[in-house]
Amino acid sequence: MQRYKLDDTDSGDRTQLFQMMEALPQITEWRGRLTLTERLKLNHPNAVMRKFKAAFEVPDPSKPAKPGLRDSVAELSEENMQLKVQNAQLRAHVAEVEATVERVVERGISVTETLLWVAHDVGLTGYGRFKHRLQ
User: Fold this and answer.
1) pTM greater than 0.70 (yes/no)
2) Could you tell me if 88 and 123 lie in one domain?
3) pLDDT exceeding 90 applies to what percent of the chain?
4) pLDDT of res. 11
5) Average of pLDDT values for 107-112?
6) Structural domain range at position 107
7) Does 122 have pLDDT greater than 70?
8) Residue 111 CB coordination number (10 Å)
9) Do 84 and 128 share a domain, yes or no?
């Protein structure tokens, strides 16, 4: 390595260079099919090897496909819409609860009656004799 002055080269670049030397005939053939602009862009061993490997890489069928930007935007838009609907439902529920609290305060109902009222609002049964006060 000292003879060819490769000892002071980055180890990653050196590894890429050795891989390129092993696959030089295939790389030369592949580069021959590229346009001049594409060849000029590939001006570093890492870039050449990355594009060369990508050109012949067979996708792994067991590996899930990486979502693209369009997929991410669609997924986020759908999630945003669901959250808006949920937000509207929660705001409506808060308005109902606030109205219930107002009625309780206006009528001067006791804590026990208030708890029974809340039980009624959430669908629990057994509010018995206070039913007429909840109307």
Assistant:
1) no
2) yes
3) 22
4) 77
5) 72
6) 69-134
7) no
8) 8
9) yes
